[in-house]
Automatic annotation (TrEMBL), chain A:
The species this protein was found in: Anaeromicropila herbilytica
UniProt cofactor note: Binds 1 [2Fe-2S] cluster per subunit.
Designated name of the protein: Ferredoxin-NADP+ reductase subunit alpha
InterPro entries from the UniProt entry: Cyt_c3_hydrogenase_gsu, Dihydroorotate_DH_Fe-S-bd, FAD-bd_FR_type, FNR_nucleotide-bd, OxRdtase_FAD/NAD-bd, PyrK_electron_transfer, Riboflavin_synthase-like_b-brl
Gene3D superfamilies in the cross-refs: Nucleotide-binding domain of ferredoxin-NADP reductase (FNR) module (3.40.50.80), Translation factors (2.40.30.10)
TrEMBL record, chain B:
A Pfam match: Pyr_redox_2
Residue span, Dihydroprymidine dehydrogenase domain: 17-127
Protein name, UniProt field: Oxidoreductase
GO molecular function annotations of the record: iron-sulfur cluster binding; oxidoreductase activity
Organism: Anaeromicropila herbilytica
Domain FAD/NAD(P)-binding: 139-447
Superkingdom, taxonomy of origin: Bacteria
Length: 296, 461
C-alpha cells in the first residue's frame, strides 16, 4: 500500500499528490513515469513523475480528473492509500546523462502545455540544479488552467506564460509565443522539449521542423503494464514501431507519427464515456435510454 | 469399466461454457479418481516419471489415491512440485508423463494430470497446508519474477531453509498463471491464489510492483540489499508483431495485451475499471496455446472468432485438448492462411484483413514443411479485431541492466541446463528467460534445477 502524504488542488480538476514510495523515490529520474492502481478493481494509470524527494521517500504526481479513474483518484485524501504504485518506468530524459558542460553550451527551451507543465517541472529543476539556464513557456487555454507557475519561475531563467484567450500573460498558443520569442525578442534555441496534449506536441514539432530546431516530445499513449509486455502503447517513430513504455516515453518529435498516435488514443472513447456516466449516475445509466447501448 | 479407457472427466457443456468464464473441465470426484487410479499398474521402472520434468513419483501418489489416502498422495506430490493444481490443469501431459505410460500402448494412458489435479483440489478444499522448515540457514536469496519458474525455485529454496524474497513487476504474483492463462482453464481466485499462498506458507516473501532493472537492479540486490544469490525467472513477455501494414490500427492487439486486460485486469467483469474492445468478428493470428486462449476468450466476450494459421492442423503447436475444446465451442479454423495486410478505415479502425492461402512445401532446416504462398489466392477476411499471437521473446530489461550477464542472439539469458548457473557469479536463471517461450512445467523444472544449483553454490561458499 502506498500512502498519500500530501494533496493540493493546483487548478480546477488538476490535483497534486505526494505518494510514499521508497523504491521509486530512490531510483527515479526526470522523464520517467509511474503506474498507479487505486484499489482491487482499479485500472493501471500511467502518470509522469513530477518531482521526488529521495530522503523522504516520496514521489509527486499531478493528474487531471478527466475520466472515471482519475475522478475517483481525486476523491482520495491525505492518509489514504493506493493499492499499487510501480516505477520508475520508461527511460530517463536524455539530458540527464549529458555532462553539465555540454548542457551549458546549449540554448534550451521547454514548452509545457496545460497539465503537461507538471512533467516539465522536474526537468527544468534538474537543469537549475546543474547550473544550466533554460527558458520555459507555459501554455494553457485560460488563466484558470495555469499550474506550477511560481515553482517554474524559481527554476527557469525565463518563464513565459501564454493563454489562448489572453486572460493571462501572452495572448496566443505556445507556437505563437515561440515565434514571438524568436522573431521579436531575438531569441534562438538549439533544443526544444515539448510536453503536453498530443495535438500541441504535434504542432510544436511541425513549427520547430520548419525552424530547424531539434525537438523532444513525451508521448502519453494508452498503457496497460508499462513494462514492455503488451504493446498497447506502440507508436511509429521514423520507420520503426516503438513501445513508449520501454523505448520512451521521450522521442524525437520530428520522427513521431502523431496522427496515428492520436487515433490510437481515442480507441476506448465510448468505454471511457460510459465509465464516467456510471460513476456519476450509478445504476440509473442502464438499458440504453440515451441510445449508447446502456451498460453493455 | 473398460480398463483400456480413461475414466471420463466431467466438463461444462460447450454451448453453455462458450458464454461464461467458468472452468471448462470440472475434474474427478473422489470415487472417479480412485477408480482411475486402479488403472495404474504401478510399474517397477515407471516410464511416466521420466516424462515429467520435475520427476514426480507418479505410481507413488497414484497408489495412495487408489487406497483413498488423498492427504498422503498430496504429501508425495509436494516433495516434487509446488504447483500441482496448476500443472494438473495446464501441462501438456500427452507429450510428457502420459505419453510414456505403459497403458497407453494398447489403450488410453492413465489420466495422470487429472489425478494430480484431483489431489491438489482435494487438498485445497480440505485446507491442507505445506509445512515450513523448522530452522532457517541465515542466507538470503532473491527471486526475480513470480511465474512458475520463480515460484518453484522459491518454494524449493524455502524448504531448504533459505530466506527467500520474490520480486514481481506486476501488482499480482503468478506471472503467466495470472495474466496469460484464462479463468476457464485456470481459475484465479481458487486455484492460482491458493498455490501462491502455499508458497508463502513456506516462508517466502513476495514484493509486488518492483521492476528489476528500473526500481532496483540485480547488482544492488547483491551489494546493497544483502542477498547471497539471485534467481532470474523473468520469463519471455515481449510480444512479436508481424510488421505488416495496418498493424497499429485500433483493434489490433497483441495476445499479451488482450489476455492481460481480461485475466489480470478482469475487463470482462463490469465491476472492474479496465476496458476492453471486443469486436464482433475477431481473427487470432497464430496456432499455439496462447492463440487458443485468446480465441476462446474473444468468443466468450461475444464475438465470431477465426484462428488464422499458416500451416495445417497437424502442425498446430497448441495442445490437442485445447484445439478440441476450441472447435467444440465454435471457433472457426482458417488453416494454411497467412495475413498480408490489415485494412483500416478513416477513423483508424480495423475493417478487414487481407490474407493469402498457403501450401506446405519442402521441409526446412528444422524439419518442418515450410508454408509457401499459393499463387493468386488473395482474399479479404471480414474482421473488426485482430489479435496477434505469434510468440514472445525475453524482455531485455534485466540483461541490459546487469553487468556481466551474458545473453544469446535471441536475448535469452545464457544459463547451464543442469544447475541454472549464468555467466555472473551468484546469479542463476531458468524458465522462458533462458529458453524463450515454452511450457509451465518446463519452467518449473528449470526453477527446481536452479534451486539445487543455488543450494550447492551457497553450501560451499
Amino acid at each position: 500500500m502506498y500512502k498519500i502524504l500530501k494533496k493540493e488542488v493546483l487548478a480546477n480538476n488538476i490535483y497534486l499528490m505526494d505518494i510514499e514510495a521508497k523504491r521509486v523515490a530512490k531510483s527515479c529520474f526526470p522523464g520517467q513515469f509511474i503506474i498507479v492502481k487505486i484499489d482491487e478493481k482499479g485500472e493501471r494509470i500511467p502518470l509522469t513523475i513530477c518531482d521526488y524527494d529521495r530522503e523522504a521517500g516520496s514521489v509527486t504526481i499531478v493528474f487531471q480528473a478527466v475520466g472515471a479513474s482519475t475522478q475517483r483518484m481525486a476523491e482520495y485524501e491525505v492518509g489514504d492509500t493506493f493499492r499499487d504504485f510501480v516505477g520508475p518506468l520508461g527511460c530517463k530524459s536524455e539530458l540527464v546523462d549529458e555532462p553539465d558542460e555540454e548542457l551549458k553550451k546549449k540554448k534550451i527551451l521547454f514548452v509545457a502545455g496545460g497539465v503537461g507543465t507538471a512533467p516539465v517541472y522536474p526537468q527544468v529543476k534538474w537543469m537549475k540544479e546543474h547550473g544550466v539556464d533554460v527558458d520555459c513557456i507555459i501554455g494553457a487555454r485560460n488563466k484558470e488552467l495555469i499550474i506550477l507557475e511560481e515553482e517554474m519561475k524559481k527554476v527557469a531563467k525565463n518563464c513565459y506564460v501564454a493563454t489562448d484567450d489572453g486572460s493571462y500573460g501572452f495572448k496566443g498558443n505556445v507556437n505563437d509565443k515561440i515565434k514571438d520569442l524568436i522573431h521579436n525578442e531575438g531569441k534562438s534555441y538549439d533544443l526544444v522539449i515539448a510536453i503536453g496534449p498530443i495535438i500541441m506536441m504535434k504542432f510544436v514539432s511541425l513549427l520547430t521542423k520548419e525552424l530547424g530546431i531539434k525537438t523532444i516530445v513525451s508521448m502519453n499513449p494508452i498503457m496497460v503494464d508499462g513494462t514492455g509486455m503488451c504493446g498497447a502503447c506502440r507508436l511509429t517513430v521514423g520507420d520503426e514501431v516503438k513501445f513508449a513504455c520501454v523505448d520512451g516515453p521521450e522521442f524525437d518529435g520530428h520522427l513521431v507519427n502523431f496522427d496515428e498516435s492520436m487515433k490510437r488514443q481515442v480507441m476506448y472513447r465510448t468505454e471511457e464515456g460510459r465509465a464516467v456516466l456510471k460513476l456519476k449516475e450509478g445504476d440509473t445509466h442502464k438499458n440504453g435510454g440515451c441510445g449508447c447501448g446502456g451498460d453493455k | 469399466m473398460d480398463v483400456l479407457k480413461k475414466v471420463p472427466v466431467r466438463e461444462q457443456d460447450p454451448k453453455v461454457r462458450a458464454t461464461n468464464f467458468e472452468e471448462v473441465c470440472l475434474g474427478y470426484n473422489k470415487d472417479e479418481a480412485m477408480e482411475e487410479a486402479t488403472r495404474c499398474i504401478k510399474c517397477k521402472n515407471p516410464k511416466c516419471v521420466t516424462g515429467c520434468p520435475v520427476s514426480i513419483d507418479i505410481p507413488g501418489f497414484i497408489k495412495e489415491v487408489e487406497e483413498g489416502n488423498i492427504e498422503e498422495a498430496s504429501k508425495v506430490i509436494a516433495k516434487y512440485s509446488a504447483l500441482p493444481a496448476v500443472c494438473g490443469r495446464v501441462c501438456p501431459q500427452e507429450s510428457q508423463c502420459e505419453e510414456r505410460c505403459i497403458r497407453g500402448i494398447k489403450g488410453e494412458p492413465v489420466s495422470i494430470g487429472k489425478l494430480e489435479r484431483f489431489v491438489a483440489d482435494w487438498s485445497r478444499e480440505h485446507n491442507i497446508k505445506p509445512q515450513p522448515p523448522e530452522t532457517l540457514n541465515g542466507k538470503k536469496v532473491a527471486v526475480i519474477g513470480s511465474g512458475p519458474a520463480g515460484l518453484t525455485c522459491a518454494g524449493d529454496l524455502a524448504k531448504l531453509g533459505y530466506d527467500v524474497t520474490i520480486f514481481e513487476a506486476l501488482h499480482e504474483a503468478g506471472g503467466v498463471l495470472v495474466y496469460g492463462i484464462p479463468e476457464f482453464r485456470l481459475p484465479k481466485e481458487t486455484v492460482v491464489k491458493t498455490e501462491i499462498d502455499n508458497v508463502r506458507e513456506l516462508g517466502v516473501k513476495i514484493e509486488t510492483n518492483v521492476v528489476i532493472g528500473k526500481s532496483t537492479t540485480i547488482d544492488e540486490l547483491l551489494t546493497e540489499e544483502g542477498f547471497d544469490a539471485v534467481f532470474v525467472g523473468s520469463g519471455a513477455g515481449l510480444p512479436k508483431f508481424m510488421g505488416i501494414p495496418g498493424e497499429n490500427a485500433n483493434g489490433v492487439f497483441s495476445a499479451n495485451e488482450f489476455l492481460t486486460r481480461n485475466n489480470l485486469m478482469k475487463a470482462f467483469d463490469e465491476s472492474y475499471d479496465s476496458p476492453i474492445v471486443s469486436g464482433k468478428k475477431v481473427a487470432v493470428v497464430g496456432g499455439g496455446n496462447v492463440a487458443m486462449d485468446a480465441a476462446r476468450t474473444a468468443l466468450r466476450l461475444g464475438a465470431e472468432v477465426h484462428i488464422v494459421y499458416r500451416r495445417s492442423e497437424a502442425e498446430l503447436p497448441a495442445r490437442v485438448e485445447e484445439v478440441h475444446h476450441a472447435k467444440e465451442e465454435g471457433i472457426i479454423f482458417n488453416l494454411l492462411t497467412n495475413p498480408e495486410e490489415i485494412l483500416v478505415d478513416e477513423n483508424g479502425r480495423v475493417k478487414g484483413m487481407v490474407c493469402v492461402e498457403m501450401e506446405l512445401g519442402e521441409p526446412d532446416a528444422s524439419g518442418r514443411r515450410r508454408p509457401v504462398v499459393k499463387a493468386d489466392s488473395e482474399f479479404t477476411l471480414d474482421v473488426d479485431t485482430v489479435i496477434m499471437s505469434l510468440g514472445t521473446s525475453p524482455n531485455p530489461l534485466i540483461s541490459s541492466t546487469t553487468e556481466g550477464l551474458e545473453v544469446n542472439k535471441w536475448k535469452c539469458i545464457v544459463a547451464d541446463e543442469v544447475n541454472g548457473k549464468t555467466t555472473k557469479e551468484g546469479v542463476y536463471a531458468g524458465g522462458d528467460a533462458v529458453t524463450g517461450a515454452a511450457t509451465v512445467i518446463l519452467a518449473m523444472g528449470a526453477g527446481k534445477a536452479a534451486a539445487k544449483g543455488i543450494d550447492e553454490y551457497l553450501s560451499t561458499k
